[in-house]
Amino acid sequence: MANPPAAGDKPGGSPKQGEWDEKELQDSLEHLKLLHIKHNSRRDTAALSPRSCSPRIEAFDGMNRSNPMRILRALPRARPSVPSPRAARTTAAPAFHTLRPLQQSSKAKQEKPPAIAEKAKPTDLADFDVLGSTPIPSTNIEATLPRGFLLNSGLSIFDGAGALLVNGEAFAWRPWLAKRKPGMSEEESLTLVNKKGQFELPAEAFAVLSLMWPRPDLLVLGVGPTIRPLSPETRKHISALGMRIEVLDTRNASSEFNMLATERGVEDIAAALIPLGWVEGKGAVE
């Protein structure tokens, strides 16, 4: 016995292969209408832009007009776009490498190099003078002359006399007069060097220093135009007064006294100077 036909089956039997079911045909038509609406909206958008439609869209439009059933076959399959890691590296790497130099260049523009002097100033020796701000003593020697001395205070010692500078005071010093004895000629009294070639003075030539208290710590002795050794008797007498002694020629002794008196003070430094033009047996001459 044959089974009754199903509710959805047509009375003529099952549909042949290649024929469309009524429900499936309606679903396909609805789907085609939606695609057609989307396509028209895209075409209107493309018409507003200055660029012309692509050949693929024009072919798709012609196919749609001729046979709407072929739209599904003409559309390409959608493929998921997976970003290539190589492309990602190539796009990110330039951005990474180009930003860093830009930042460095911007910092270099902001940080200006220090200004360089156009011309180097010449070195001034006065800048290295550690005693430049120290007041100069009034007994400093400004000039040594053949027959005397000029002091910083404006005082001058002439007439062939020497200079004795003690405790800020200046005295005309003639130590050869202490050697004069009765019956001695003037030429003999004007001799300050003994037979051994040593500079020698009697103890009376330093009588002013023996009357002072406290005495200076150092005595700078200028023995004339050339340096000579000091006799043991004269050195012994000065040491007995409690003073150290430094023997130089008159020119260097004057410079030494100026420096030490400015640095340490006139209370600690004294000077006894023979004129620069001193000649044995004649005295100070021009």
From TrEMBL:
GO cellular component, one term: mitochondrial inner membrane
Ranges of biased composition (kind: Basic and acidic residues): 18-27
Biological process annotations from GO: mitochondrial respiratory chain complex I assembly
Domain of life of the native organism: Eukaryota
InterPro entries named among the record's database cross-references: MTH938-like_sf, NDUFAF3/AAMDC
Region (Disordered): 1-27
Transmembrane segments: none
Protein name (Swiss-Prot/TrEMBL): NADH dehydrogenase [ubiquinone] 1 alpha subcomplex assembly factor 3
Xref: PANTHER family: NADH DEHYDROGENASE [UBIQUINONE] 1 ALPHA SUBCOMPLEX ASSEMBLY FACTOR 3 (PTHR21192:SF2), NUCLEAR PROTEIN E3-3 (PTHR21192)
